[in-house]
Amino acid sequence: TLYEAIVRDYTGRTPEAREQTLIVTHLNEDRRVLNSMIHDAREKAGELGKEQVMVPVLNTANIRDGELRRLSTWENNPNALALVDNVYHRIAGISRDDGLITLEDAEGNTRLISPREAVAEGVTLYTPDKIRVGTGDRMRFTKSDRERGYVANSVWTVTAVSGDSVTLSDGQQTRVIRPGQERAEQHIDLAYAITAHGAQGASETFAIALEGTEGNRKLMAGFESAYVALSRMKQHVQVYTDNRQGWTDAINNAVQKGTAHDVFEPKPDREVMNAQRLFSTARELRDVAAGRAVLR
């Protein structure tokens, strides 16, 4: 499968190369599956400690700009947590009659908010999830927190797990987090794969990109999304796709139509040329020796 090919590619690299490799997806589901599969592959290879713990995490709902102002967006994310004024709230009710949302915090306090107010106040929706981690896993913070000294996308190694605590080290400093006790410490994830949305601002020497047109991937296929994914690397990017022709057609169509963003904020010529060079020189796995080794 596509997932298995990506996992083989990543785990087949040297430890040094892995530390410089970023796997970029467009869907949270793809990110979750790849992170879990790589964790399992590393565990099977004896690279992780025997003790494993399940920790609660909060994933950004990845709601597109403008969609938060629609009541339907809130209805489609009933289990999401809303972060308002640094306080986490569950969605306690949605009223179509007056277009208001009832939010409730951990203390039972409620507040009413309209979708438009939510956008104005910078509300963010997060989806609760759980991941399994062990000693040796690579993890990252998904949200910056000045109070706690967390920097988004900074990568750490798990050096110990015990009960509900996870000890992280970046080689220079150590952090002990207890995501089971603190919501604010649930903005963490395994660091093998990341969404393009979360990868903005991140950069690595090598990148592996999962692109495609099957299912919800089709909604994300286009020049803008491909550009974000393919520009995360400094030296080399390997693209895996479920439909090469369909994906390249989606990119070409987007380039021909153009967007309002392109008109008002055109990309520097150098960046566009770089993206076009990547597309024009890309080769299928079976056409190169390293690719054939991965497919085997």
From TrEMBL:
Signal peptide start-end: none
Keywords attached to this entry: ATP-binding, Helicase, Hydrolase, Nucleotide-binding
Name listed for the protein in its UniProt record: DNA helicase
One GO MF term: helicase activity
Taxonomy, superkingdom: Bacteria
Lineage of the species this protein comes from: Bacteria, Pseudomonadati, Pseudomonadota, Gammaproteobacteria, Enterobacterales
Cross-referenced InterPro entries: P-loop_NTPase
Regions annotated as coiled coil: none
